[in-house]
Amino acid sequence: MMRVNRPLSNDRFPELINRTLMGEQIIIEQEGKAAAAIIT
């Protein structure tokens, strides 16, 4: 499971989508707390 902060997720969104397509779960954090998840 990969954790990224919200500003970084905006810059790397296409990469994060590709990683979820390969089975990885992505947690997007804001101010140190989980705000969203990208999963398949």
How do the helices and strands line up, and which of them pair or pack?
Blueprint: E1 2-5, H1 6-11, H2 13-21, E2 26-30, E3 33-38
Parallel strand pairs: 1-2
Antiparallel strand pairs: 2-3
Question: What do you see in this structure?
Answer:
There is one protein chain. Helices cover 38% and strands 38% of the residues. It is built from two helices and three strands. The protein has a three-stranded mixed sheet with strand order 1-2-3.
What is shown here, in short?
The chain is α+β, with helices and mostly antiparallel strands and 40 residues long. It has two helices and three strands; from the N terminus they run βααββ.
Strand tally is 3
Provide the β-strand percentage band. 35-45%
Largest sheet: 3 strands, mixed
Kindly report how far apart the N and C termini lie.
Answer: 12 Å
List keywords for this structure.
40 residues; 3-stranded mixed beta sheet; alpha+beta; single chain; 38% strand; 38% helix
